[in-house]
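Proteins fold reproducibly. Take a tokenised chain:

. . .
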Amino acid sequence: MFYHFNAWSITLPDAVRNALSTGTVSRWAEEANRFLVMGDQLAAECGGIAGIETILKSARKASQEAAQDNRTIGLLGLLKVLKEPEIQKGIKFLLHFVKNLDQ
């Protein structure tokens, strides 16, 4: 039994055959390759697998700490925290990162 798509009058086998055409599979392979190359570049930039593990561990810890922190951050507290070197470094990174998104 063949299923028909009324909007296009294409049978399901035809749709599958078209989806698995050489051009489609080639584009999927190219996209998969680009994804793997980007992943490799990201891993290299982060210091390899160990660097990625450190980033993930830090993100998990920060998420847990933020969830447990019930304090209210006021304006004076925020101004005090903004002077910390780690915060300055993070803010500078984020500003430069956003600037470079358009390039």
